[in-house]
Amino acid sequence: MLTDIRPQVDVDRALLEWGRWLQYGAIGGPRRVGCGSAESRYRTPQVWEQDAPREDPPDWRIAERVERIVVQLDPRTHKVLAIWYCARPALQRQGVPLIPDDETWAWRRAHVGSADRFWQLLEYGKSTVSDQWA
User: Fold this and answer.
1) Phi and psi angles of residue 76, each rounded to the nearest 5 degrees, phi first
2) In the beta sheet, which residues pair with residue 47?
3) What are the residue ranges spanned by the domains of the chain?
4) Beta-ladder partners of 42
5) How do residues 22-55 score in pLDDT, each as one tens digit?
6) Which residues contact 62 (CB under 8 A, 6 or more apart)?
7) Contact 24/57 with Cβ under 8 angstroms?
8) Torsion of CA 87, 129, 104, 52, to 10 degrees
């Protein structure tokens, strides 16, 4: 029997777990990208890259609970939440600099018209998840 995780987890952490779950593949396992053999890590001129240590998988109980809430939102709000809690942290983990900054990159990527509209949709999405999470 699963324990109720809601009292132990705040909404921002839950949304970050949901974002990691989306990045992870949303099917309970990591997405395979190419072959995992030593030959596939070969880069000329004669460079062998070390495997990066794997981070812990996301908590699927939290992520799936958030997903059940988020799928009820309109597609633009869903997209804004996914950009803010999935794409942006994933790029930051990989060390990719977002130019000119995170906020400008995020609202331009969402194609919602303006930064104000992006923040409105983000706050609406967070408040909806928060209301239904409790």
Assistant:
1) -65, -40
2) 43
3) 9-26+35-133
4) 48
5) 887 655 444 444 555 666 665 666 656 666 666 7
6) 5, 9, 13, 14, 17, 18
7) yes
8) -20
